[in-house]
Amino acid sequence: MGEAARDETRPGRLGPERGLTVCERLLDEYGYEPVREAPTELRLRNCPFHPLTAKAPDLVCGMNHAFLAGYVNGLEVNAVRAVLAPEPGECCVRLGPGDTDRDDGGGPLARQ
Fold first, then answer.
1. Contact by Cβ (8 Å): 31, 38
2. How large is the average pLDDT for residues 7-28?
3. DSSP character string of 9-29
4. Any idea what DSSP says for residue 40?
5. pTM given for the model
6. pLDDT tens digits along 22-66
7. Residue 12 — left, alpha, or beta (φ > 0 → left; ψ -120 to 50 → alpha)?
8. DSSP characters for 43-86?
């Protein structure tokens, strides 16, 4: 999905702030209710799969984390990573600062 969004919008090089703005649009469409906590941090106030979290929280959070890490990777947003950061009543993933070196897992913060 990130690659498709990149192909569609052709945003050029995406730094953290501009990249998160692009992410906000899609995540709002999918019901995550993104909120910018800082210029380079995005908190997701809603989990679209919340009813399932009571039955399988590890599965749902893992799925959200993989989806968001893959989206950011495909969109090629520099210095932003999907990080597991559970908060009661919100999505368990936050998008925030990470190192600029990419690897196969979305960066070291993505695996925490």
1. no
2. 85
3. H---SB-HHHHHHHHHHHHHH
4. T
5. 0.79
6. 889 889 999 999 999 899 999 999 999 888 888 999 999 999 999
7. left
8. EE---TTHHHHTT-HHHHHHHHHHHHHHHHHHHTBTTEEEEE--
